[in-house]
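Standup notes
- DV: blocked on the single-chain target, sequence here:
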Amino acid sequence: MDTRIDFHPTHQHGAYKLRPGRTYPFGSTLVPGGVNFSISSGHATACTLVLFEKGAPEPCVEIPFPDTFRIGKVWCMVVFDLDGERIEYGYRMDGPWDPGAGHRFDRSKILLDPYARAIGGRTVWGTPPDWNNIYPQRARLIFEDFDWEDDRPLETPLADLVIYELHTRSFTAHSSASVKHPGTYAGIAAKIPYLKELGVSCVELMPIFEFDEFENSRAEPLTGEMMFNYWGYSTIGFFAPKAGFAATGPFGMEVDEFKNLVKELHRNGIEVILDVVVNHTAEGNENGPTLSFRGIDNQTFYMLTPEGYYYNFTGCGNTLNCNSPVVRNMFLDCLRYWAAEYHIDGFRFDLASILGRAPSGAPLPNPPLLESLAFDPVLANCKLIAQAWNVGGLYQVASFPAYGRWAEWNGKYRDDIRRFLKGDDGMVRVMAERIQGSPDLYGWNERGPTASINFITCHDGFTLYDLFAYNDKHNEANGEGNRDGGNSNHSWNCGVEGETDDVQVNALRQRMIRNALAILLMSHGIPMILMGDELGRTQRGNNNTYCHDNDLNWLDWTLRERNSDLFDFTRKMIALRKAHPLLRTGEFFGTRRSPADIIWHGTQAWKADWSADSRALAFMLRERQAGQGGNATPVLYMAINSFWDALPFELPELPTDYHWHLFANTSLPAPGDIQEPGQEIPLQENLRSFLVGGRAVVILVGRPRPQA
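- DV (later): unblocked, structure below
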């Protein structure tokens, strides 16, 4: 057979043989006999490929792209006889230096490929870099040879998700994790049995796109401990997994290690959602470093003022020009790549309101990027979740352009549940909206309850334990004079600020935590639990631990034994949710498409008290035909008492031959506070009311009486 002609070089640069490359795909791609390099810039005048031996301080060669190797605004070239495992590469771009016009070309800078599939330079977490390195984060080639063994995204229905938000390093970095490779993708894989036992069906990983933990690193003022860019909301490369999160990062195997994690999670029925930061980059404002985008095509990639400065709707110095066709296509390529090559099940978009802004910063009525993501065929079965606000003041909860596809972090759910739990006035009516999936927010546009990601805590703010242990934030360890972090926490310390030996206060805190978990997992919508909340993890009142690589962020696994009763409560609440389809429907209760109804009660059955000073609410969930024609589906009832004293709740009448059973009562000490689903305790016959303790919740299950 004749050898194809496009496998042969046509040009030569010193000892390197070349030929014109292929424009697509962008980035570096292994081709027969060599490597295809492709990069675009709308305003550069020339481009040079810079090749390094892996880890070498100086380039081994710099190869200018011949003019004949440029097609449109794309430079593409095949370089033959390269050892893909031993090289790193970057680019130099020629062009105008005219900041007022938005151009910041600087040929002295070696630039990272925006499409790099792997990035060296930070392969071991926290290892101090060489600050004199002329090219600190370096693009590398990868080999697409991973054996997925027929794995594919799970496509779990949205209504069936229970999301568990975690930080890759924090989950197993603590010595008590007892894993072979702490703080890594492999560490998470070792803890899959724990996740499976807990019962979550999805993990949402905080940013794992390559970032630099040494960005803005500094010494903690009191202890001298190094503070990092720990959370990673500052992307360097959108196509590369964080090498420092991989046990195999020093060997360049982070791609395979992360893929193996996804495969093992899928094998155990757990989906993977990535928290992605596509609203800004690590280059910051005009005083920040030139790493990649700024030097390749600043005017195209960033939102700029008429004077050439950076719009800062992110609070991080710059804002990506997401609805520019070039940037939009890059993000489509990026997310398609993660969905196709890493089998990712969905994406949560940080500060997603920015994705709907025009280049001027004005909100768009029909944002091209959001529409493209919603209707893209590769992403058709991926979950798309928006954090529908940004620091520029655009708050779009319930008004985010959804196209029938987008769900949202429901910040109003978080705030309203917190306020009700702490006993604020006037919260009962809005509490009812949140429990039934926020129809006031998502009913008018027919988005349904699965548009609402319900959460009470997340990485940004107090843990669930701290929510009931601190009235105020305590962020002194961040070195910013306690000025950082949110001030509106709607928290309550139960009478004492911080840790205490007071038995009654500690018992109340444990009760409040259980109340919150019970409400979250009984609510219509999609529940999200913060890593460690099921174990009583504390950040000692710090509500913005973005910079700490220590036990403020790490999960202390000794809590698994010390707070085993809290873990058990959370596990059984998740199991209850899985056992009852009533809690997992994709339609609002009481609508034509829903087979079930929600009936509101108060301390009096069938009569909720909606007054401003009311702090008691109950509800019953039932299929409309329950108890009729052989339909024996259970009935669920929940009584919530946010008043400080016990209150008797009159129980609603059940269908004929049904009987009430006690599933959970948070006023009881463990282990009597909750039962296994299906093993609830029968209540006495003809019981008319149930005494619900002060600041407690009760969950009952109505079942048919056993046949004689």
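- Follow-up: The chain has a mean pLDDT of 95.
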